[in-house]
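Q: Can I see a sequence and its folded structure?
A: Here is a first one.
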Amino acid sequence: MNTMFLAVLLMVSTVTVQAQVKSITFDQLPKTAQNLVNKYYDAKNVSYVTEESEFMKSKEYEVRFHDGVKVEFDAKGDWKEVDGKKKAIPTALIPTSIASHVKKSFPNNEIVKISRSNRKYEVELSNGLDLEFDKQGKFLRIDD
């Protein structure tokens, strides 16, 4: 009896934790995300758009372009990560303090990837170096 109960409990918990990823159209993205793509990229070059729903979490979106560039968005359409796939990402997406620090301290490099969370920004430079900044854009450390 206990074995049966544990098996059912394990099955239910496994099913509820799995994320649901589905393909959607560009027009189904939140307007904020659509605006960012239209401003900094060419929506005609979108390869695909996905929506991820996970139990007890907000939806997330991913836009992938034909050249491999990827932008991830939260449920409101604010970017979470921009990955230029070794190409510079649009400077206007980078907080000014971070862009200034990189320009001053790593003058021959470009930011090719940036992600943000509630606590920090993580940046990857064209030379492969990873940097961490706090939420206000103050440099914290080089991340090995």
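Q: Show me another, different protein.
A: A second, unrelated one:
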Amino acid sequence: MKVFGLTGISKRVIDELVEHGVKTIELRSSQNVLAASRAEVGELVFLTPHSPEELVPGAEGVLARIMEKHLGFRRIGVFSQEESEEREVLVARLKLSLVNICRASTYEAREEFREVKFHFSASTFECW
């Protein structure tokens, strides 16, 4: 089974998902927003605290099912001593439901799409 990866997710966010079983997260990094936009409601995603550059086979994280998905723009203010301005960034909000804590057996990073997919065996649902 292959699933989209959400990388660089803070340990605090992952811990809250594990503790409560459901969590809504907002993604801003281009790689994670792209993965979220390509994944569908009902599909699984793999959240890991590791950045794409730190990934190794056996990366730890959690599998979660997408319950809701919203893509949209968020205004952010940029302030300096000389000027201030507003910018819009594309963000993805995902409501996730915990499936399992596990390790990915392997992963593939596709630079042309800035995408990371993780591979799992059928026994993933039985780990930890």
